[in-house]
C-alpha cells in the first residue's frame, strides 16, 4: 500500500511537470505556409493567428502560445497587422525574405494596440533593401516598406532575431517595451534606422547595429528611456530627434544612454531639431561612450544634459563638441565630464550655458 502511494505521488508530480512545460504551437505550415521562398507567408501568418493563436490564449504568459515559423526559407510578399494582440509569442526559427516589389509599401510586420507580445528568433528577416535603392538612390521608391513596428504597445519584447537590410527603417517601438540581444545589419546608407523608440520607459540593451543612419534613437514623446551596452557601426550615432521643421509639443525627458561604442561613424550623439521647433528636451545623460566619430547637438530648448566618459577619436571635419542652441531659449545646465576625444576641430558653444565641468559659463 505504501508503494502504491509513492507511485501515485510520483505520477502526479510527473503530470504537473509536463503541464508546466506545455505550450501550444500554432505552426504556419498548418495554415498554408510553404518553406519554398516563393509562397507568400503573409496569409498564413494571419490565418494561424486568427484561427489558432487567438482562441487558445488563456493566460498572460506570452510563451504559452506560439505562432511558429519553423526552420526553412519563406517569402513575405504582403504586410501583416496583428491588431489588439495580447499574450502570445511570434517565434521565428526560419529565414524570411522580402521580394523586390515597387508597389510594396507599409510595414511588413505590425503589432498594434498590443500587450505582452514576444517576438524572437533565432531566425532572421532579410529585407533586400539594396534592391529598392539601386545605385544608392533613395528617391526612386520613397514608399518602400519598413520591417517591424510596435504601435501603441506595452510590455512587448523583441530579441534573438537578426534583421538584414530593410528597404527603409528596421524597428519602431511606441509604448513601454524592450529590445535586446539582437543585431541589425544594413547597407551604409540613409533611411535605414535601427531602433526608433518613443513612449514611456522603453529599454534597449545588448544590441548591435550596422547601417548608415540612426543607431538607437529617441523620438518624441518620451518620458523614461534607457539604452545600455550598445554597439553602432557606420551609423549616424545615438540621437534624440530629429524633430521636423516647425514641430510643436516636443517632449523628451529622462533619457539615459550608457556603455555605447560607436565606430566608423560620421556622428556620435546628436540632439537634432530645427530652430523653429517648440517643446522640451531635459534630464538627459550620455555616459560611458567609446567613439570613432564625434559628438554634437542641434537646436531646441534643451536642459539638464550630461555627457560623461567619452573616449576615442573624432573626425577632423567636426568639433568634439558643438552646441548651437536657440537664442531665445538657450541650452541650460549642460555638463561635460571625462571627455577625451582626439583629431577633432575646436569645440564650439553658441547660446549655451553649463554646469559642473562643462567649461561653459553658468546662467
General description of the model:
By secondary structure, this protein is mainly beta. Helix content is 10%, strand content 49%. The chain has two helices and 23 strands. The chain has a 19-stranded parallel β-sheet that branches. A two-stranded parallel sheet has the order 15-17. It is elongated and about 65 Å long. The model is unreliable at 7-21 and 293-300 (pLDDT under 50).
Name the descriptors.
363 residues; mainly beta; 19-stranded parallel beta sheet; two-stranded parallel ribbon; 2 helices; 10% helix; elongated
Distance between the termini: 86 Å
Based on DSSP secondary structure assignment, what is the total number of beta strands?
23
Q: Count every helix, treating DSSP H or I runs of 4 or more residues as helices.
A: 2
Low-confidence spans: 7-21, 293-300
Radius of gyration: 23 Å
Indicate the overall shape: elongated
**Could you describe the largest sheet, including whether it forms a barrel?**
19 strands, parallel
Amount of helix: under 10%
What are the secondary-structure elements, in order, as H or E? HEHEEEEEEEEEEEEEEEEEEEEEE
Provide the residue-averaged pLDDT: 89
The secondary structure category is mainly beta
| Strand percentage | over 45%
Q: Can you summarize this structure?
A:
The chain is mainly β and 363 residues long. Helices cover 10% and strands 49% of the residues. It is elongated, with a radius of gyration of 23 Å.
Amino acid at each position: 500500500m505504501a508503494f502504491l502511494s509513492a507511485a501515485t505521488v510520483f505520477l502526479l508530480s510527473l503530470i504537473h511537470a509536463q503541464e508546466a512545460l506545455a505550450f501550444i504551437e500554432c505552426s504556419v505550415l498548418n495554415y498554408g505556409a510553404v518553406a519554398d521562398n516563393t509562397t507568400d507567408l503573409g496569409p498564413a501568418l494571419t490565418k494561424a493567428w486568427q484561427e489558432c493563436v487567438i482562441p487558445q490564449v488563456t493566460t498572460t504568459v506570452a510563451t504559452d502560445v506560439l505562432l511558429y515559423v519553423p526552420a526553412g526559407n519563406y517569402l513575405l510578399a504582403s504586410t501583416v497587422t496583428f491588431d489588439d494582440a495580447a499574450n502570445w509569442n511570434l517565434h521565428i526559427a526560419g529565414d524570411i525574405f522580402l521580394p523586390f516589389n515597387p508597389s510594396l509599401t507599409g510595414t511588413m510586420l505590425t503589432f498594434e494596440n498590443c500587450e505582452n507580445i514576444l517576438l524572437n528568433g533565432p531566425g532572421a528577416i532579410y529585407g533586400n533593401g539594396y534592391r529598392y535603392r539601386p545605385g544608392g538612390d533613395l528617391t526612386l521608391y520613397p514608399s518602400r516598406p519598413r520591417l517591424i513596428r510596435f504601435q501603441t504597445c506595452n510590455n512587448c519584447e523583441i530579441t534573438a532575431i537578426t534583421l538584414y537590410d530593410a528597404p527603409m527603417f528596421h524597428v519602431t517601438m511606441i509604448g513601454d517595451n524592450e529590445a535586446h540581444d539582437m543585431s541589425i545589419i544594413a547597407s551604409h546608407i540613409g533611411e535605414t534606422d535601427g531602433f526608433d523608440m518613443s513612449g514611456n520607459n522603453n529599454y534597449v540593451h545588448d544590441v548591435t547595429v550596422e547601417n548608415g543612419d540612426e543607431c538607437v534613437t529617441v523620438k518624441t514623446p518620451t518620458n523614461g528611456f534607457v539604452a545600455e551596452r550598445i554597439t553602432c557601426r557606420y551609423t549616424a550615432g545615438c540621437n534624440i530627434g530629429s524633430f521636423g521643421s516647425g514641430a510643436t509639443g516636443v517632449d523628451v525627458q529622462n533619457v539615459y544612454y550608457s556603455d555605447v561604442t560607436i565606430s566608423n561613424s560620421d556622428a556620435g550623439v546628436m540632439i537634432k531639431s530645427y530652430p523653429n521647433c517648440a517643446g522640451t528636451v531635459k534630464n538627459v545623460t550620455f555616459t560611458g561612450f567609446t567613439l570613432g566619430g564625434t559628438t554634437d547637438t542641434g537646436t531646441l530648448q534643451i536642459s539638464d544634459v550630461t555627457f560623461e566618459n567619452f573616449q576615442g577619436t573624432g573626425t577632423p571635419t567636426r568639433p568634439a563638441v558643438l552646441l548651437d542652441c536657440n537664442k531665445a531659449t538657450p541650452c541650460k545646465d549642460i555638463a561635460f565630464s571625462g571627455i577625451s576625444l582626439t583629431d577633432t576641430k575646436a569645440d564650439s558653444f553658441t547660446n549655451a550655458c553649463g554646469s559642473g565641468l562643462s567649461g561653459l559659463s553658468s546662467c
